[in-house]
Write a sequence for this structure.
């Protein structure tokens, strides 16, 4: 019983780490550009399919290392172009927030059924990064899980470093605090908007590559992921990076325990109940600013 | 939009719809499309009232529709309540549910409301499929297959005879449309608009955000639930497929085509969208693909929906008429 609880806790921790990676990307986009991306889950699946294409039909040399290496520029370009072509033209309207929501919802439908048309409705499985298990005391861990955990944590640390120590990162923060003021001091606002969107696309794409090894690539699984990422960002407070970090781990662990104790069908109900209760008590989430 | 244009467009729409069965009464395919247009036009109008007028980013419209459909179906199947009453009760249940969803939304900022209402939508699928839903009679993933048709004055309105059902829906649609127009053009509608533009300023003028936001949730979910229930008794079976993104997108296309907050616009949007969706039905899984692409393109290029050009046409013609008249008067004077 005790061992079982530890196992569940660890699986929650690993899921939580990947959720954190994805949710931080989402909260960044909302915090900086105020755009509400409903197609986020579809980019997660794009990550899964991207890895699948490279590994199975193409069989690139270097396995996952080349996948990650190619993924960074690929997702950056995809994200950057999407922002430039689809979202930035909407900014001139008064009700652009609503329009962005509608557009990304349409985009998500388009992408999901696009995957189904191209790759077929069946789920695809990805090979693991490494096979084998490790044993600490009596707890048996999959090495794959350890790698996923290390990758997502280091991805987040990397992101935090970029945000706090590079010129671009500081420009992103400046735009988030005051777009007009940032523009006055010479920060190219439009570029920052697009770059932020692109960075968040990289993060969710990585999340897709990492998590799809465990959970398969499902063309219809994107709404589930999108809801999870959204719940985490709202739960933690939109625009608050630390809040969504905590929220991701809380939710990952809650999910693991509810799934283990009550069955998988109750997971979504439990997460959404948690969200509703949190928002009823704290309308801006755990760490949200007024 | 002025009341005159609103009434002009709505009258035109309902007059055309009202005489359609005279021509197509024998063709079930077209009658089905017409009935769906009537149902969706009202559901989309409700969404426009809550989103375009009251400015609440509610993404739970399909959820309310399904709640109405399921509650009426469960009431009439499990408890043997006659459909006429179960539809009314479904409307009330959905209205209460709308208030329940609206309560936490009162304190939330725009995108949070979208998330919470969409979360309600997403929770409905596992709820209706799971053991909890099965306990209240939702039929699990199979759905409810034997929903009795509506019986009124000894007449059965079902999918067997489409023309009587069409006129039943038609009369209900007209009543609900009248209610919506009255609400939009009354003190309430102005209060909604004021709250949308500036909640603080509206509050300083004595408009209670609490009261009016809950009111709009209650009203739109009541009407939506009513039509969901009507739909349930029309098709005679329900499943959680109604909650797919596909349906949600269709409703959204109506809004985008019609223009958000341009009230009779969504009605025109409903006509175009339902017809289009029926025409695309043979394409199978490419239909949602195309629908998604349509949303993206329309949001990008159709700024205010197609209703604005129509209104522009109506008013410019009137202006031309006035100019001509005044010219005639002036020439007579000479």
């Amino acid at each position: 019983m005790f061992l079982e609880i530890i196992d569940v806790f660890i699986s929650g921790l690993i899921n939580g780490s990947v959720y954190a990676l994805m949710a931080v990307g989402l909260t960044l986009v909302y915090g900086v550009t105020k755009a509400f991306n409903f197609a986020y889950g579809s980019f997660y699946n794009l990550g899964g399919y991207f890895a699948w294409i490279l590994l199975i039909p193409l069989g690139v040399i270097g396995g996952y290392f080349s996948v990650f290496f190619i993924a960074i520029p690929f997702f950056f370009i995809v994200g950057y172009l999407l922002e430039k072509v689809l979202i930035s033209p909407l900014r001139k309207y008064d009700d652009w927030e609503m329009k962005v929501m509608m557009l990304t919802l349409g985009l998500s439908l388009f992408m999901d059924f696009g995957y189904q048309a191209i790759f077929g409705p069946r789920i695809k499985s990805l090979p693991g990064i490494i096979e084998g298990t490790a044993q600490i005391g009596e707890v048996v861990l999959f090495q794959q899980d350890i790698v996923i955990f290390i990758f997502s944590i280091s991805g987040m640390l990397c992101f935090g470093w970029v945000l706090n120590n590079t010129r671009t990162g500081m420009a992103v923060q400046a735009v988030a605090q005051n777009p007009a003021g940032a523009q006055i001091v010479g920060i190219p606002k439009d570029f920052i908007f697009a770059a932020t969107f692109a960075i968040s696309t990289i993060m969710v794409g990585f999340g897709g590559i990492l998590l799809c090894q465990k959970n398969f690539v499902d063309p219809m699984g994107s709404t589930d992921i999108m809801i999870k990422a959204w719940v985490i960002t709202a739960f933690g407070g939109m625009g608050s990076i630390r809040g969504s970090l905590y929220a991701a781990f809380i939710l990952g662990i809650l999910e693991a325990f509810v799934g283990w104790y009550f069955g998988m069908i109750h997971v979504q109900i439990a997460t959404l109940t948690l969200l509703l209760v949190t928002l009823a008590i704290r309308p801006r989430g755990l760490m949200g600013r007024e | 939009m002025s009341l005159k244009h609103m009434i002009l467009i709505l009258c035109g729409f309902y007059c055309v719809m009202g005489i359609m069965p005279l021509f197509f009464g024998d063709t079930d395919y077209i009658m089905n499309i017409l009935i769906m247009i009537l149902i969706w036009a009202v559901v989309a109008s409700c969404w426009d009232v809550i989103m375009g007028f009251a400015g609440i980013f509610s993404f739970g419209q399909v959820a309310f529709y399904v709640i109405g459909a399921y509650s009426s179906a469960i009431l009439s199947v499990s408890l043997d309540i006659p459909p006429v009453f179960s539809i009314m009760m479904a409307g009330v249940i959905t209205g209460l549910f709308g208030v329940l969803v609206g309560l936490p939304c009162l304190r939330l900022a725009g995108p949070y409301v979208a998330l919470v209402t969409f979360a309600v939508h997403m929770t409905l699928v596992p709820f209706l499929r799971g053991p909890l839903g099965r306990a209240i009679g939702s039929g699990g993933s199979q759905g409810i297959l034997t929903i009795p048709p509506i019986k009124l004055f000894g007449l059965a309105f079902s999918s067997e005879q489409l023309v009587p059902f069409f006129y039943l829906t038609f009369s209900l649609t007209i009543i609900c449309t009248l209610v919506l127009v009255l609400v939009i053009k009354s003190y309430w509608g102005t209060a909604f608009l004021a709250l949308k533009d500036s909640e603080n300023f509206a509050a300083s003028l004595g408009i209670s955000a609490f009261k009016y936001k809950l009111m709009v949730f209650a009203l739109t979910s009541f009407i939506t639930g009513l039509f969901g229930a009507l739909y349930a008794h029309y098709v005679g079976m329900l499943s959680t497929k109604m909650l797919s993104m596909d349906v949600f997108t269709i409703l959204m296309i109506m809004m985008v085509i019609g223009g958000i907050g341009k009230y009779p616009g969504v009605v025109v949007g409903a006509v175009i969208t339902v017809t289009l969706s029926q025409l695309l039905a043979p394409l199978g899984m490419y239909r949602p693909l195309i629908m998604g692409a349509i949303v993206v393109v329309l949001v990008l290029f159709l700024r205010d929906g197609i209703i604005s050009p129509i209104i522009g046409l109506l008013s410019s013609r009137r202006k031309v008429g006035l100019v001509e008249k005044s010219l005639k008067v002036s020439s007579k004077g000479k």
About this structure: Chain A has a mean pLDDT of 85.
